Amino acid sequence: MKKTISLLLFFCIISAFSGQISAQTMPKDADKKLWEKALQIQRKAVIVDGHNDITSPMVDEDLDLSANTVGKFHRDGDPFHTDLARFKASGITAEFFSIYVSGTDYQKGGKMRRAMELIDATNREIEKHPAQLTACTTAADIRQAKKQNKICALMGIEGGYVIENSLYALRNFYRLGIRYMTLTHNVSHDWADAHRGEVKNNGLSDFGKEVVREMNRLGMLVDISHVSDKVMNDVLDISTAPVIASHSGARGVANHTRNVPDDVLKRVAKNGGVIMINFYPSFLDERTNREENERSAKLKSQIDGLREIYKNDPNGFNEAERKLLNENPIYIASYTRIVDHIDHIKKTVGIDYVGLGSDFDGVPFLPEGMNGMEDLVLVTYEMLKRGYSETEIRKVLGENFLRAFAQAEAVAKIGTRKISADGSLKKIGK
Ligand SMILES: [Zn+2]
Fold first, then answer.
1. Cα 159 to ligand 1 centre (Å)
2. How far is 106 from 119, CA to CA, in rounded Å?
């Protein structure tokens, strides 16, 4: 990987609270003036990231966010992208900690308990690091945190099965601070179909539609990442509030079911929602996706063999697997590909409907040139390079999301529905 780490103190952010130093990776041949301008915008802007999976190791590996994760690996062998110093270096104002419950947990049970563990872990990090982190649940909270120079921790559920088919549970998750719910993960469930799962409901079931209406009433954003195209369209038929794709790209650039097709893009723009671009190179770029799949198929028997050899030594397995993957490199799309997706959305529906949804700590590798959160400024730099104005950049970094979030809060206040005695919903007017 070609990267130039600037030794200039200017590019280093010394973390006052941990003594760590995090440096952004300045691109080789960077225009210094433009780079400075990018760093300046990064400091001034309200920056919101739609999805971060650091929550899982906070539970499974007892990870404290003050630990230095640079160059370290998750239990499953994937590299870490997040810690408090890296948060600080990224310039981020608000991060959505993913309350992610896997399809396996869904099938074996215990999904609501798993969500509770992840919510608790998020809150404990906020309690442990009050000078750096603050709990946020509204668009106003995010703006306030920016003024206080703190980082907002917000939460979003990933996998609608977490509510265990209960609107009572959905409401309690809202009360616990959940502000979006991705209706599925990769498997279809009782009331919604996933992007690559079986067709169980032909989109959203009647109960699934009730869930969307109740989320509108509460002010919980409906997230259409991971769902089937039919679910995307069903949601857009029903939702009275803006929707988000918390971590998906544009299918017009990379044809992957995890990305949003142009026809849906146009509907999201009409709805006032935001597509928050996922940084995973296999979603950003078809060549990376193809080569990654080919490599997995080619190495499958070798990896199975390693799994057998290291069955009692997970660290040994991870190391051996990583070595094998490194010996079989694939094309990894550059961070500039993120801005290709932003460009596409800008050209198709306008600059007002695109944001960032990194998927940090939820993906096995990041785009070429990007090592972790600290390198978020690269996206700003690339937008500047392509002639985006500061206003446009700030929209992408956070303002578009804040507009959609505030609008969803306003829809909730209108309160067009009420809860009937049996816990179901009754329409009371429009
Ligand atoms: Zn995801």
1. 9
2. 17
Å from CA of 359 to ligand 1 middle: 7
The CA 226 to ligand 1 mean position distance, Å, reads: 7
Contact 372, 80 (CB under 8 A): yes
Distance 241 CA to ligand 1 centre (A): 22
> Ligand 1 mean position to 357 CA, how many Å?
10
How do beta strands 244-245 and 274-277 pair? parallel
Give 225 Cα–ligand 1 centroid separation in angstroms: 7
Look at residues 290, 283, 210 and name the one whose alpha carbon lies nearest to residue 246: 283
Q: What percent of the chain has pLDDT over 70?
A: 90
> For residue 332, is it left (φ>0), alpha (ψ between -120 and 50) or beta?
beta
| Across 16-20, 295-299, 329-333, least confident range | 16-20
Domains of the chain, earliest start first: 35-285+333-427 (3.20.20.140), 287-331 (no CATH)
130: tokens are 């009050």
Q: What is the pLDDT of residues 73-97, one digit of tens each?
A: 998 889 999 999 999 999 999 999 9
| d(CA 223, ligand 1 centre) in Å | 11
